[in-house]
Amino acid sequence: MKILSRLMLIACLVLPFAACKKAEGPVQTASAPMSAPKNDDINAWRTYLQDIVPRYMGAGANPPYVYLLPGESTPDFNDVYMRLAQKAKEDIGRGIVSGNLLAFASPASAKAADMVVEAFKDVPPGSMKGVKVLFIGKSEDNGRVKAAVAPAGVDYTFVEAK
Questions:
Q1: How far apart are CA 32 and CA 35, in angstroms?
Q2: Concatenated DSSP letters of 106-146
Q3: b/e per residue, 140-159, with b = 16+ CB within 10 A?
Q4: Helix, strand, or coil (residue 32)
Q5: Are 106 and 84 within 8 A, CB to CB?
Q6: DSSP label at 53?
Q7: Which pTM does this prediction carry?
Q8: CA distances for 138 relative to 112, 113, 125, 143, angstroms
Q9: Are the beta carbons of 149 and 133 closer than 8 angstroms?
């Protein structure tokens, strides 16, 4: 009788683990990244960022901070630029936790670069180790963005919007 009850106990312990095995399906491959929009269509840029930004976040990351500046053809561009630049500066000034991602993008790459430079101007050196910064823009703006964020100790990535 003891043997039978022990076998039943073992079966009760093993059965849940045996039932949890997932069926193996076909291996999924990552799709190719989208190309950047060639115009100032803000909705096309949002769709583009929804594809690109998660590729640089890492597993288990918090939601990213995304700063999407519209194109300069937008009627209230200067106001939008000022508000977004102020928001970026305030967010960074409050502190960003290691592992988080800051993404900056715009069809107006030079203005987005200006925004990054201004936002990181007063950041203490080495205070943002482990924070990821993604700049999506033109290659001619990459150098000054990289120079502006480097002292903070961030992990910087550039994606050319082409």
A1: 9
A2: -SSHHHHHHHHHHHTTTPPTTTTTT-EEEEEE-HHHHHHHH
A3: ebbeebbebbeebbbbbebb
A4: coil
A5: no
A6: G
A7: 0.79
A8: 10, 9, 26, 10
A9: yes
Distance CA 123, CA 33 (A): 32
Name the residue ranges covered by the structural domains of the chain: 2-160
- The set of residues, in sequence order, having a beta carbon less than 8 Å from that of 15 and lying 6+ positions away, is none
Any idea which residue has 């950047």 for tokens? Answer: 36
> Is 36:162 a contact under the CB 8 Å cutoff?
yes
Count each helix (H run) and each strand (E run) in the chain, helices first.
Answer: 5, 4
- 42 within 8 A of 29, measured Cβ to Cβ: no
Confidence check: pLDDT of 50 > 90: yes
For residue 21, pLDDT beyond 90: no
Lookup: tokens for 36: 């950047």
Contact indicator for 161, 137 with CB cutoff of 8 Å: yes
The number of CA neighbours under 13 Å toward the Cβ of 41 is 8
Please write the tens of the pLDDT for every residue from 113-139.
Answer: 999 999 999 999 999 999 999 999 999
Based on its alpha-carbon atoms, the radius of gyration of the chain, rounded to whole angstroms, reads: 23
The CA distance from 118 to 114, in Å, is: 6
